[in-house]
Amino acid sequence: MQVGITGGIGSGKSTVCKIFEVLDIPVYYADDRAKWLMNNDTNLIEGIKSVFGNEAYHPDGTLNRPFIANIVFNDKSKLAELNALVHPAVFQDGVSWNEANASAPYTLKEAAILFESGSYLTVDKVITVFAPKEIRIKRVLMRDDTTREAIEARMDKQMPEEEKIERSDFVIYNDDEHSLIEQVLDIHRKILELK
Question: Which CATH class is domain 32-100?
Answer without folding.
Answer: alpha beta
